[in-house]
C-alpha cells in the first residue's frame, strides 16, 4: 500500500500553507480536511481523540500499511514530505543551517508575526483580552527584529541556505508574505521583497491559498 495523506487545516493558517507548498512542489496529492479555528472546531473531544490531543492544526495524517499516523507540527510535517528531495540540501552544514532557520521561524518569527496577524485580521483588537493587548508592543518589537535579521541575511544572497530553495525558504515564506497583515510594511524590507518574488517564481512551490 502506498502512502496517502490528509491535511487537517484551517486554510487561513500560514503553518498549514507550508505543508501545501511542499506537497505542491513535490507533486504529492493531499486530501484536505478543513476546520474553522474561530468556531472552535479543533477544540473538541472528537478532534483530540481522533487527530491531535493538542487540539491544534495543522496535522498531517499518513495512511499506509501501519494504519493512520499523525504529525502535528508543521515543520516536522514539511520535513517528512520533503525527505530525500532537493528541498533538503546536501552537506551537513547546509542541512544544519536549514534547521537553524526552521527553528528560528517557529521560535521567533511565527509566534510574533503570525499571532499579530491573527489578532488584527481575525479576532480584532477590541476583542482581545487586556493581557493580549499588553503583549502587542513586545510582539511587534520582536517581529521587527526578526524581519531585520531576515533582511540582512537576504541582502547578500538569493536563498536562505545554499543556491536554491529549501525548507528554510518554505517555512519562512507564508507569514513573511503576509507581514503587512501584521502591520509591518514590506516596502521597508527590499531584500525580503526580492526573495518573496523568487520563491513565488519557483514552479509549483506556491499553490493558491
Give a brief description.
This protein has 209 residues and is of the alpha+beta class.
Report what the structure shows.
It is a single chain. With 209 residues, the chain is an alpha+beta fold. It folds into 2 domains: 4-82, Glutaredoxin, CATH 3.40.30.10; 92-200, Glutathione S-transferase Yfyf (Class Pi), Chain A, domain 2. The protein is 51% helix and 9% strand. The chain is built from 7 helices and 4 strands, in the order E-H-E-H-E-E-H-H-H-H-H. It has helices spanning 14-26, 45-50, 74-82, 92-123, 130-154, 167-177, 190-200, and strands spanning 4-9, 31-34, 59-63, 69-71. A 4-stranded mixed β-sheet has the order 2-1-3-4. It is globular and about 50 Å long.
Q: Class of the largest domain, according to the CATH hierarchy?
A: Mainly Alpha
What is the CA-based Rg, rounded?
A: 17 Å
Strand-and-helix sequence, N→C? EHEHEEHHHHH
Average predicted confidence as pLDDT: 97
The spatial strand order of the largest sheet comes to 2-1-3-4
Residues in helices, as a percent range: 40-55%
Number of domains: 2
Number of helices: 7
The total of beta strands comes to: 4
Enter the CATH topology name of the largest domain: Glutathione S-transferase Yfyf (Class Pi), Chain A, domain 2
Beta percentage is 5-15%
* Major sheet characteristics: 4 strands, mixed
